[in-house]
Design a protein that fits this description.
Helix content is 63%, strand content 0%. The chain contains 49 helices and no strands.
Length: 1089
């Protein structure tokens, strides 16, 4: 072990205990361990156990080693030191769980050998052994988990040695008593040797019986003080250790407490339940000695088969596969375990496999699926025998599936195949699976054989589909099944129920496998084309069947021109039929058209469009334009959106299909516009997108069905994104009107009103034609059905809210992600725990994504920063208006705290954010959009990283104080000294806002360079005073100028007497002004003089 030597060096004493500690922690060889074992002294027991737990046991006082109560003081000292010092690396307190189990096993074996040696060395129990047992009992109850774990392991090892030696002693007593009884039999008189032997036997019996009684008493005491309390210990590792020791003693025949083990099956710790299940299964392994406990054990294991932990459930079912336990199951428990192979979730794959093996072993008649047959015997068997075994097993599987599953649950048969796929070859017999479905049909050799029931045929088709999914449609399956597909279509395409869906799935897998690039092509039968096209046109399936057939047809069309022509003709026929059914644009709709309720035309067209068939380019007659306008007209009329129109009765399912058709046509037209270089078509495309987007906005704002609103919102965003393609020529952006924004806000109000729980917006995808689907498509396919009164569960409503919020946060149009709906989203961050994002709800994560996106965009441009700050201001103000100023301030603080990346002073991002914050404050104060308390803006100004410049803050504070009459007034003054109420405007929070702006201004003014600037100004002022004093003339005592001759003498070069001040000033005014570059100090000096 890596840190074993470090742990050994930390122990005081001689070299024996550290070496022994190193051997126990690292698992040294048995020879070295035996040498250390023989040289080790028993008095170092507490010291060794403390060192194994990573602790340093204090030295005991002399003369107190024989008193167990003397450990109370050192244990208290040990508890105090454990709180102050970190544990030593490599000991039980720092080891991983699996390594710690190995160490405790070595400790148990060591103390088992130690106690056995001490018992065998004396005729009675020695004082050292009794002292050791007393110390182990006391240390097993210590509150330190590591020391308690090591002590319990040692005590349980000692208990096993006591029970084993007691059993040997009692057996010896019984044997000696038997010999004694033989010698005491009546008969001939005993000779002297016999009498001496009898005397020795009596002494031996007394000695061994005394020792056996002592061992039994000590063993019972250890059971009561160590084993029973530790089975209910607070630490799961100690409970598992005690349970494992109990099971080992039960297997050795030393104890028999089955009720204790069965009670541990309900332990809260997973590892303890796993250990208990393994111990119960070991009772019935290869023997029937414990048949009395089988009914109770089977009942408890059946209950554990529904355990939330997959390991416990799978292990319980594995134990129930034993014949002794399976025969004791009740009918309900037997059915429950069998159904686990079909109903267990995907996360419990091992449980499904064990349950499937249980079914194969106890339900299917022999030989079942041939899992028990050895590989060699299977290779030696003839082909006819293997074929018979395969057909027999497949029919037995179909019988089981039809008996345990109802018609609408037969699709779960795929799970049974997945569970046994790697364990049997019966599901790889493709021809046998198809022939069993065709049994008794046609003019072949088996035409006289009775047909299988339809439910068994359907079950076999699901088994075939599941096998193709597991095998990923190999070449041998394609070659065996493709010739039989036309016949299967002829028999089952017109059947009711799930026949068309499973047949469509098999067809898609076969055709996609045959057309897969990079492999040898398998010829596709031409006779299959007509059944596929016919089934697609007449399919009554909601989603799956038509999607599978459309996928197969689109894939086949890339390989065959004949199939491509047939697909194009099918699209044109569907267009013509749909155009005839749809009303003309502008026509009055006074009643619900009956033909519109038929999905035989609309659904196949949608399936082809979703699977990659270009619906726009295949239209050569202009039907798509008429259909698009008619769709908009129908949706507006039959959803009560036209003023004065007649109320309609359009079903929710049909309205959803019309919205999807409208979006699909726009998408395929956008693709054609992208591929073509003709710019003249952009005008028509923009008109098409505008009409469709306006229709989606109306449905989104006025529809009462939640899922239909959600689909309209998704279509609205998609159409808005597509309009960018039409604005490439003029470099413009699509316009989102105020009416559309109001509809968006109404939709989000409906999304948020019904949510009651939190749900992951990344719903586990459901395979649709071999592809994963988005959460939006998953929700629509699952909950958008006919009937307006369909109740949507709370989880689905929460998922709608989370998905819509994520789409809003990722939208690229600024009018959308800065709308009122975005305000509702940001308000979800009020109570978010910023320290643990894993506990955040999906709405909070979407809001966090939007908030950090606003920060990133604002760091690039001031305009984006202004929009981001204004959105946060409005969200905080609305929140304060509804829930109070404290809630608004809390939301503002969370918005500031969660915004990333952080603002770095002096960076370009900080400059742009500062400009944007100034513009946002000005705009918000001028517009007064909310009309609430202005105090909610204060957290952005008091942020230590506020990027607002000081000059801008001063101007805002001055302007705000001027507007509200606060100039010349102290904000901290007495309320009576403040301006009169009639001089102020009705605005709340003005004083805190002005205070924050002034604090920001003073804080920026007293920056790091403030002292330098003050010193520079003072030096300039002193220099100016010095120059003024040097150039000023002397003044006499009477206040007049001293004559110059007294100062400079009477020389010829003396300057003339200066003129009076007034005259000199008039002369200067008549002279021209000096240039701007001249010094101004001279003029000031003249004025001072």
């Amino acid at each position: 072990m890596e840190h074993a030597s470090e742990a050994a060096d930390d122990v005081d004493g001689d070299t024996i205990t550290p070496r022994l500690l190193d051997a126990l922690l690292s698992g040294a060889d048995s020879k070295q361990l035996q040498e250390d074992f023989l040289a080790w002294t028993i008095s170092d027991g507490p010291k060794l156990l403390a060192a194994l737990g990573g602790l340093r046991f204090p030295t005991l006082p002399e003369g107190s080693q024989d008193q167990p109560r003397s450990l109370v003081g050192p244990l208290s000292e040990l508890l105090d030191s454990a709180k102050k010092h970190a544990p030593v690396q490599g000991t039980l307190q720092t080891l991983p769980p699996l390594t710690a189990r190995q160490v405790t096993s070595r400790i148990s074996l060591f103390f088992t050998s130690l106690v056995s040696r001490l018992i065998a060395s004396r005729k009675c129990l020695s004082d050292q052994l009794l002292q050791l047992l007393a110390e182990l009992q006391m240390l097993s109850g210590t509150p330190l988990r590591s020391l308690r774990q090591a002590s319990v392991a040692a005590a349980l090892g000692a208990l096993q040695a006591l029970l084993a030696e007691a059993a040997v002693a009692f057996a010896t007593v019984a044997e000696l008593e038997g010999q004694q009884a033989t010698l005491l039999e009546p008969g001939e008189p005993k000779a002297a040797p016999a009498a001496a032997r009898l005397a020795r036997l009596c002494c031996a019996v007394n000695e061994v019986k005394t020792k056996a009684v002592q061992l039994d008493a000590q063993a019972k005491k250890m059971q009561e003080t160590v084993l029973l309390p530790r089975l209910h210990d607070t630490a799961p590792a100690v409970r598992r250790l005690s349970l494992n020791a109990l099971g080992r003693m039960m297997n050795l025949g030393l104890l028999w407490w089955p009720e204790r083990v069965l009670r541990s099956l309900c332990d809260p710790a997973t590892e303890v339940r796993v250990q208990a299940v393994e111990l119960v299964g070991a009772w019935f392994e290869g023997s029937d000695d414990h048949a009395a406990e089988a009914p109770e054990a089977a009942r408890w294991l059946a209950e554990r088969s529904r355990d939330t932990e997959p390991r416990v459930a799978a292990l319980a079912v594995r134990q129930l596969r034993r014949a002794a336990l399976a025969s004791q199951l009740s009918d309900s428990n037997f059915e429950q375990v069998s159904m686990l192979s079909l109903t267990a979730p995907d996360s419990h794959g091992l449980l499904r496999a064990e349950a499937a093996l249980f079914v194969e072993q106890h339900l299917l008649p022999d030989p079942g699926l041939g899992i028990a047959v050895k590989r060699g015997e299977e290779a030696d068997a003839e082909d006819i025998e293997r074929h018979f075994t395969t057909e027999h097993g497949l029919i037995a599987v179909a019988d089981f599936l039809t008996s345990y599953l109802k018609d609408h649950l037969l699709h779960l048969s795929r799970r049974f195949v997945e569970a046994l796929w790697v364990r049997t070859d019966c599901f790889r017999r493709w021809a046998a699976l198809a022939d069993l479905c065709l049994l008794g049909e046609g003019q072949g050799a088996a035409r006289g054989v009775p047909c299988l029931p339809n439910r068994q045929r359907l079950a076999l088709l699901f088994v075939l589909d599941g096998a193709l999914h597991c095998a990923e449609a190999p070449k041998d399956a394609t070659e065996a099944l493709l010739p039989r597909l036309p016949r299967l279509f002829e028999l089952f395409a017109s059947e009711e129920g799930s026949f068309p869906d499973v047949l469509a799935s098999i067809t898609r897998r076969m055709i996609c496998s045959a057309c897969r690039p990079g492999e040898s092509e398998v010829p596709l039968p031409r006779a299959l084309l007509v059944p596929v096209v016919t089934a697609l046109k007449k399919s009554r399936s909601k989603r799956c069947g038509q999607a599978d057939l459309a996928e197969a047809l689109a894939t086949w069309a890339h390989r065959s021109s004949e199939v491509q022509a047939a697909t194009s003709q099918l699209v044109r026929d569907l267009y013509s039929s749909l155009e005839a059914q749809m009303p003309r644009p502008g026509a009055a709709l006074t009643r619900h058209p009956p033909s519109l309720g038929d999905c035989a035309t609309l659904s196949p067209l949608l399936a082809l469009g979703r699977r990659g068939v270009d619906l726009w380019s295949l239209d050569k007659t202009g039907c798509s334009n008429n259909i698009l306008r008619s769709t908009v007209h129908v949706l507006e009329a039959f959803n009560n959106q036209v003023p004065g129109g007649q109320p309609g009765e359009l079903s929710v399912q049909r309205a959803s299909e019309l919205i999807e058709l409208m979006v699909l046509l726009s998408t395929w037209r956008a693709r054609q516009l992208t591929l073509s270089e003709n710019g003249k078509e952009s005008g028509g495309f923009l008109m098409c997108c505008n009409l469709a987007r306006a229709c989606c906005a109306k449905v989104m704002g006025g529809e009462r069905h939640l899922m239909l609103r959600f689909q309209a919102f998704s279509g609205f965003l998609l159409l808005l994104q597509l309009e960018y393609l039409g604005h490439k020529e003029n470099s413009g952006l699509p316009t989102v009107t105020e009416e559309h924004l109001l509809a968006l806000d109404a939709a989000f109000q409906a999304f948020y009103s019904g949510r009651a729980t939190n749900c992951n917006w990344r719903q586990p995808s459901e395979a649709l034609a071999g592809r994963e689907v988005t959460s939006c498509r998953w929700l629509l396919d699952r909950y958008l059905q006919d009937g307006d009164d369909l109740e949507i569960p709370a989880e689905a409503q929460a998922m709608v809210a989370a998905s819509a919020s994520r789409m809003l946060a990722e939208c690229e149009h600024e009018a959308v992600y800065t709308s009122k709906a975005a305000e509702r989203l940001l308000r979800e961050l009020e109570n978010m725990d910023s320290g643990d994002l894993e506990k955040a709800s999906d709405l909070q994560l979407a809001a966090l994504h939007l908030l950090r996106r606003l920060r990133r965009d604002g760091g690039r441009h001031a305009r984006d920063a202004c929009q981001g700050y204004q959105l946060q201001f409005r969200a905080a103000a609305c929140h304060a208006k509804e829930k109070g100023v404290a809630a608004g301030l809390q939301l503002a603080s969370m918005l500031i705290h969660l915004s990333l990346p952080h603002i770095i002073p002096g960076s370009r991002a900080a400059t742009q954010l500062g400009k944007g914050l100034a513009l946002a404050l000005k705009g918000y104060l001028e517009a007064d959009l909310v009309g609430g308390d202005l105090e909610v803006l204060v957290p952005w100004l008091r942020d230590p990283c506020c990027p607002l410049p000081g000059s801008t803050a001063q101007k805002l504070a001055t302007g705000l104080a001027s507007d509200y009459g606060l100039l010349g007034q102290s904000i901290t003054a007495h309320p009576q000294k403040r301006p009169r109420p009639w001089r102020l405007k009705a605005a709340q929070g003005v004083w805190p806002l002005v205070t924050a702006l002034q604090g920001l201004t003073s804080g920026l003014r007293h920056s790091k360079s403030w002292r330098d600037k003050m010193q520079q100004t003072a030096r300039r002022r002193l220099r100016r005073r010095k120059d003024t004093a040097a150039s000023a003339p002397n003044v006499s005592a009477d206040g007049w100028l001293t004559p110059l001759e007294k100062k400079i003498g009477t020389s010829a070069d003396a300057p003339p007497t200066p003129a009076p001040v007034a005259k000199r000033k008039r002369e200067l005014d008549n002279q021209p002004r000096p240039p701007a570059s001249g010094t101004k100090r001279q003029w000031r000096l003249r004025d001072d003089g």
